[in-house]
Amino acid sequence: MAGTPPGFNANTVRAGLRTAMQFGEPGDTALQPIFYTIQSTSSASPTDSEGTPFDSAAVVTAPAPKAVQVDCAVEYRDADGRLDAYGYIAASRIALTFMDVDYAKVRGFDYCVINGNKFNYRHTEPPIGMGPITIYTVVVIAEDES
Amino acid sequence: MTYLRHSSRHIHQTVFKYVTDQLTVLGWMSTDPTVRPFGATSTPVLVQDVIPRESEARAGLKAGTVAVTLGRDPVSVDEELGSGFSSIAYPFFVDCFETTPGVALSLATDIRDIFMGQLPTSVRVLPVLDFSSSSAGVAVDGWNLEFDDIERLPSPDLDSWHIVHVTATLYYPRELY
Fold first, then answer.
1. What's the whole-model pTM score?
2. How far apart are CA A22 and CA A15, in angstroms?
């Protein structure tokens, strides 16, 4: 790839980045981010485009969200419960940084859970490169925090 | 007297279906540029009934989006003393986002005229449909929507985004006691 120094070993660099990420993760895997992708629901009754039926007694098949854990860097951006105009309280956000090989496993996730708190997907920043390695940063926003 | 449970949802879906059907008749949904208005520059319309979850899979606002949003549920008004005939004036907002300001304004104007009953298949009074058992909806006896207070507003954020506001007044029979 143009611009990549000769001798650059992407696998070695990835391994180094992974070591750094794992060093920053809590030792208890239950406290590490878990990424969830909501699965499609189905019903024999008419539904709206999100799969909610109009008949409150309708039977809906709702598979559990798909859960995946991968290594990533977690940067917490606390909004300090700041009150903005009209009483809106700015929610905390987290920036999650992934290597390409890990992001491929969670891409399209709907929310993540970290230490029991749910953070909804907000947006993906333009990716950056480290030679042949692509780095993705995804911002998630707290639904509520304990 | 007919009672319709979760009526606000059925009313929203009734208006959503009406807008979708009318835009289909006008060709806005067509993938054929010879059928779709301003086919060379417009994008086929997709009408949204609910605000989708934020997801990379559904990245960003796309040209051709028409979103039908129901505002608040105002208080019910007794139309005639003791008759059990009432009305509720529901505010609806139809957001339109297209490829260019001209196309967006044309689409929004068509939507305005749909609610004004100006187009051949459009109406000002619509029966409320119950979608519990049929995706096409079944008319609810005695429940009707009348469209009024129709206005189009440009969005302050984007040139190619317009909002049509309409009041859909529900007239329905209600048990008073």
1. 0.84
2. 10
